Amino acid sequence: EIFIDETSQGAFNLEQALGESTLSGFISSLPQDEAGSTENLAPNRVFEQLRQFIDEDKKNDSPDFHYSLAMAYLRNTEYEKAHDEFLIALYGLDDKLDCYKKLIDCCLEIRWLDLAKDYIGKAQKIPKLAEREYLGFDYQMALIHKETGDRSKALKLFKKIFKRDKNFRNVSREIRELE
User: What is the pTM of this model?
Assistant: First the structure.
């Protein structure tokens, strides 16, 4: 279970994930300012302390924890760290599709385009993948080919998508642009 607090717009619920007594221990271990406050800690420092806290007690280490930590990194635009955490979470979570999507997003932000292509290929092999998901991955792959200068592969993929769904995203415009 991923501990998302629905009342706070999808934020990770650390208290629920760790349990109230564990959370209290974690908070009391954080460095404090002169007034005894932890509010001014940089997110990186909190992440570092949280990772150390989990390393000290492996029972709290889980794929859900890594997924949630990756989401926090992603929201903080720390794409490399998010990537690493999603990768750890991938092999223990049931929802591999979502994890692959997040890994691809991270790779695109970091400009790891070859790795993004690998993840797209793996995601497309997920059993019972919906047609729109498959088309979405083809579309991303075509955009990567376009970005890297392989216009013919991009055009071929965009035409393949157009043949299956002519209204999919901006496929018509992409084809016109590449022809």
Answer: 0.72
